[in-house]
Amino acid sequence: MEPSTLEPHKARRGEKTTLVGIAVNIGLVLVKGTAGWLGNSYALIADALESATDIVTSIFVWFGLRTASKAPDRNHPYGHGKAEPLAAMVVALALVGAAVLIAVQSVQNIQTPHEIPKPFTLAVLAGVVVIKEILFRRIAKVGAEVESSAVKADAWHHRSDAITSLTAFIGIGVALIGGPGYESADDWAALLASGFIIYNAYHIFRPSFGEIMDETPAGDWQPELEAIARQIPHVKGIDKYRVRKTGFEYFVDLHVLVPGELSVSEGHTIAHAVKAAIIAEKPAVYDVLVHIEPV
């Protein structure tokens, strides 16, 4: 059995941060929902709704990471890494759904007279913003270190929650300062937050979709790959190369230039040496397919 497409320690780190996010969001849903109901603030209730979607999507992320960490099998010879960006896309779509629901309810509340939110809701929202921003930074750091689009998406979901909480804080503050006639300020804040959420959803969806479509990773890999390949005797350079990302790992296809008078056996040996050198110097590369090109 070949090793997993995802390095086990990376998958475990991603799963751990996802579970921490789920635990925090369960507590925040209860706090924000209760405070919003008692404090007459739909913006805070909408914030609780987004935290609830955070829980659902984080569960998808957790399952995506678990699936992506499975070893290659007969039906999935390249591994299960695509489950990871698929989980990120689920997060993005869930964000859009939550944003639309918040926007619709906000418009309805703007058209319906209601009481000014209670002052204590500001303290709740201030605490939520701090907690969510800390959570975003922690999870985003892990996502960058393990190169996981799903973990990065989960982090941005927490950032969008912080944004909705911040806009709700501003809206409620305006309503309290303005007094009668400004009751719907927090509803306008919730409506504005829905736009930020959709923007964040695109920010999550676009790179994940590119990964599913085997889009070329950012940056020019050729100089580094060529420098590594030239360390092997008889290698004259690189003719072509292709790189695609699957889960946390990269797959490389390479055309290596060698003297035409070499034997098939010598070419075979060179190909294996180039592959081993690239994997040794670039641990994120899972596999290298080398084509020998005579010159």
Describe the protein's topology.
Blueprint: H1 8-38, H2 42-68, H3 83-110, H4 120-146, H5 149-178, H6 185-212, H7 222-229, E1 237-246, E2 249-258, H8 264-281, E3 285-294
Parallel strand pairs: 2-3
Antiparallel strand pairs: 1-2
Helix pairs in contact: 1-2, 1-4, 2-3, 2-5, 2-6, 3-5, 3-6, 4-5, 5-6
Summarize the structure.
This protein is mainly alpha-helical. It has helices spanning 8-38, 42-68, 83-110, 120-146, 149-178, 185-212, 222-229, 264-281, and strands at residues 237-246, 249-258, 285-294.
CATH structural class of the largest domain: Mainly Alpha
CATH architecture of the largest domain: Up-down Bundle
Structural class: mainly alpha
In round numbers, the mean pLDDT is 83
Give the CATH topology of the largest domain: Alpha-lytic protease prodomain-like
Strand content: 5-15%
CA distance, first residue to last residue: 37 Å
Largest beta sheet: strand ordering: 1-2-3
- Please summarize the sheet with the most strands: 3 strands, mixed
Helicity range: 55-70%
The CATH superfamily of the largest domain appears as: Cation efflux protein transmembrane domain
What would you call the quaternary organization? single chain
Order of helices and strands: HHHHHHHEEHE
- Number of discrete helical segments: 8
| CA-based gyration radius | 25 Å
Q: Quick one: how many beta strands?
A: 3
The structural domain count equals: 2
The shape, in one word, is elongated
Which residues form runs of ≥5 with pLDDT under 50?
1-6
